Amino acid sequence: MSVLAVFLAATVLAGLTPGQNAVTVTAPYSTRPIAVGDLDGNPATGDWTDAAAVTVALENGRTDAYGSASLSVKHDGTYLYVKVSGKIDVPWTSATGTHFWTGFIFSPPSTTGHHRDGMDGVFFGQSSYTPAPTYPLAPVDTNGGSRPPAKDTVQNAEGTLRYSGTAAPYDYTGEWRRPLNSGDSQDLVLAADGTTAYPFYVTTDSNGRGSLGGAIDHSVLTHENALFFARVPVPETHDVAVTAASASPLSLVAGGIVTIAVTVQNQGTAAESFAVSATAGSLAVGATSVSGLAAGASRDLSFAWDTTGFAADAYPVRVEAAAVPGETDLSDNARAAGTVAVESPPPAPALLRVSTSIDLHPTWGVPGKVLVNAVARDEWSLTWVKMPAGTYTVSFSDVWNLGTPAPITVNLVSGQATEVPGVYQAYGWLRVVTNPPVPGTISVDGAQADDWEVWRAIPPGDHTVAFGPVASFRPPAARTVRVNAEQLTTVQGDYTADPAAPGPDPATYGMLRVTTALSTDPGAGAPSAISVNGIVRDEWALTWVKVPPGTYTVSFGDVVNLGTPADQVVEVAAGQAREVVGVFQVHGFLRVDTSPPVPGTIFVNGLPYDDWQVWQSMPAGSYEVSFGPVAGYATPAVRTVTVSPGALTTTTGTYASLSPGRGDA
Question: Does the structure show a pLDDT above 60 at 337?
Fold first, then answer.
């Protein structure tokens, strides 16, 4: 009973003083409920030995025997059991004859005083309720702060009150129970948490307000009593479980690492230490121990299964937590983590190295994209990327002021390294102007380039420049000029004023205008080489060049860090003008590192991009980045990254050094 005494926390009154004798009592948890049949108003029936017992001052203000009552309370986690025994000055004969009533009222934790909203109560003998009470008295379940409190629609209190004696003072005992949480919105929910205090009040009345024949007034004083409910003890149980287990990847080549992720939980009530193991088929692939896992707590574990030496097969992976002493529920101690397909090692990969340079500067790299089978893998170069054996086409993106290398087809052989040099040609620059500035069509090597002026990079060598007619001007003669690499050659076409000189026949040409823009700034251009029907005409833009009527394909050269617009086909009619806008998509940048720096192949959307590191501009969007295995290291997890225009996105694949077969607890 010593533990029970701690829970009681009761104040027993002696020498009651009106209004100053509030009590605090904790209803202890009891494993001995009282049957409804024993809540009969007879103090000798029912087991109240483990209840908290206090003397409580009544609200009637009496200082004699009528001013207090003996209160016993306990709960079993489901019901509250209450017994109130006291003295009264009249017998209970009938609802119309001499009778008294007694009441017990709870308040919500934040509410004190009489007749408040939210109160919950139990009354015996109050003749204001219908149907009228009859003896022996049954409890009336009430709510609210009215006078008297309203009778609940659903009655959840059960019990009986009886009195005894032949003359005043008469003895009475009321016994009842009610659910801690009845689910009835008119009932107060009583929390058995040991900390929530519920104000309560007990009183009697015999002088006419729901009673008759006596002199006791129920509402003279207020005693702010407090009732607590002890916590329900939690029995000690022993139960551990594997709540989650997964193996990744589920398919790999022998020699790779499978990460087995595990979550274990202590579902009992005492701290536990236990072993956890992982098997692949009948073979042990990992073991660890968990120490001092608190009740209710979970812990994440992982095993690194090195598949080196494992035969090609499908291996069901299983994780098991060893049973702890006293554990009876073993149904969740083991969990399947998936079936891993181990494949025979493929032939050794081929190695592809691609470098860039300029013909006049062999040691200089070029920030062009390196494309393998039309997919941009990296910029500047590829550093010994591992590729399956086979035939591949290596190509290069355009770089301003340089001539793009032709695509190169290579046959990669298993276990061998192949180097591909991408040599860009150093261009010169050709600038052609008209003097005075007139809309004469400038042709370069027989192809209309632009009107008014041309300024673009061009392969070194001899080029023929011609000038079209302009009304009232005689065009200059065609000429051949030499352009040297990395030098500017300027040609001026001098038009001679001649009022009789005819202009071009409007029936023989239409006007084509081509401009460039950025996806993030329509007013900004791009230094792209603009081609019409496969022939470069000018850079940045074409300013209303005259072309014969017909169908034309307008295309755009690549620009570093921008996405190249698709070709556009236009129909140019005589006497009409057509405009074409090439919108370059502003790329973001994706940088993928390995840490520590290792020759792990970096995959983007499932394709090998480069080993060691990737850093290149990419169209805005989401990309799946994964990593190839490196001997002695755990392969980093796959991740999804988002590239935004103009911004750098960095992700690092961390290769953790392995100790085969060990788990991290």
Answer: yes
Q: What is the pLDDT of residue 11?
A: 33
Indicate if the pLDDT at residue 20 is higher than 70: no
Is 7 a residue whose pLDDT tops 50? no
pLDDT digits (tens, 9 = 90+) for 45-62: 999 999 999 999 999 999
Q: Structural domains in the chain?
A: 2-229 (2.60.40.1190), 240-343 (2.60.40.10), 350-426 (2.60.40.1120), 588-657 (2.60.40.1120)
DSSP for 607-662? EEEEESEEEEEE-SEEEEEEE---TTEEPPPPEEEEE-TT-EEEEEEE-EEP-TTB
pLDDT above 80: residue 553 = yes
C-beta separation of 616 from 587 below 8 A: no
Task: Report, as an integer, the average pLDDT of 34-38.
Answer: 97
Q: What is the DSSP letter of 37?
A: G
Separation of alpha carbons 527 and 538, rounded Å: 10
> Which residues, 6+ apart, have CB-to-CB distance to 10 below 8 Å?
23, 24, 25, 26, 52, 53, 54
What is the maximal distance between C-alpha atoms in the chain? 146
Residue reference for tokens 């058995």? 192
Residue 99, token pair as written in the block: 């009778």
Question: If you write DSSP's letter for every residue of 295-351 in order, what string do you get?
Answer: TT-EEEEEEEEE-TTPPSEEEEEEEEEPPPTT----TTSEEEEEEEEEEPPPSPPEE
DSSP code of residue 97 = S
